[in-house]
Amino acid sequence: MNNLQAPAAVVMIRPHNFCSNPDTQVDNAFQITAGDPESTRKKALQEFDTAVETLRNAGVRVHVFDDTGTTTPDSVFPNNWFSTHSGGHIAIYPMHAPNRRLERRWDVIEALKRSYRVQDVIDFSGLEEDGLALEGTGAMVLDHVGRVAYTVKSNRADPVLLERFCTHFNYEPMAFEARDAAGREVYHSNVLMGIGSDFAMICLSMISDPSRRMEVATRLAETGHEVIDLTEDQIRNFAGNVFALTGSKPLLALSSRALEALRPDQIRIIERSTSLLPLSIPTIETAGGSVRCMLAGIHLSPRERTIP
């Protein structure tokens, strides 16, 4: 497996005050209100710590940062506010919901600079003042090898900002509309699809325009990916919210719920090259995101020193 697509290290944010974010519930159809707040916080923390241990046991380097604040209920999903790129580049993103903007932490970026070779940090977040958002690798599913940024059109992925990102980081933008059977917009691209080194998981039927649907499928095939076509029910169970990683062997991190939703024939395709690594996070999934959202991949060259 090509490490360019499947990083060997991730950043994760431990949420001490997790809850389902009321500011994002309007346009996130995956989000539900959990039960008792105190019980929810404890369960989420336990799920998080178990996930970290599982990833580390599989050979993935996990850098954990604690969030003890009470104003950032979605901080467990750091992939939306920053991304890293080979060659030593980091991007910082503008967020749609005001309370999600509070998740950006320069101490995390500074820690990465100490342990990885960082050439520059490109900060797009000032464009929030213009009402623009591009929520990182939630809004864009990046093919790091084929250099394509697959992006569902939404209020969390401004087309002008997408073009600006792609020009700077040398990606081909591939934007399209995607809706569920009820006509609701898919809020983030990474719940619709995930890309490994030699396969891609996507619900093609949710792409609204049939011709664009064909273009996306063709582009994925042209860049060397066997397309695993997911159903809308599988998407509702977060089967598209997966992340290819490199541990002691090639891995695909996904939630236990997502794995249960996959068919045996789909699993066989994945397991030709990759071992499935399920993480049980049912409480965290009530916030409308799953395993991919929890993992900010590190595509940087390490220094000799490491961060915790």
How would you characterize the overall build of this protein?
With 308 residues, the protein is α/β, with parallel strands linked by helices. It has a single domain (9-297), classed as 5-stranded Propeller (L-arginine/glycine Amidinotransferase, Chain A). The protein contains 11 helices and 15 strands. The protein has helices at 37-57, 106-115, 136-139, 159-169, 189-192, 210-222, 232-236, 256-261, 264-271, 282-285, 291-294; strands spanning 9-15, 61-67, 82-85, 89-92, 120-123, 140-143, 148-152, 172-176, 193-195, 199-202, 226-229, 243-246, 250-255, 275-279, 296-297. The strands form 5 sheets. A 3-stranded mixed β-sheet has the order 2-1-15. A 3-stranded mixed β-sheet has the order 3-4-5, with no helix packed on it. The protein is globular. The two termini are 26 Å apart. The model has no long low-confidence stretch (mean pLDDT 93). It comes from Pseudophaeobacter arcticus. InterPro entries: Amdntrnsf_FN0238. This is Arginine deiminase-related protein.
Over the alpha carbons, how many angstroms does the gyration radius reach? 18 Å
Instruction: Give the rounded overall mean pLDDT.
Output: 93
Strand segment tally? 15
Give the second-level CATH assignment, the architecture. Answer: 5-stranded Propeller
Principal-axes geometry comes out as: globular
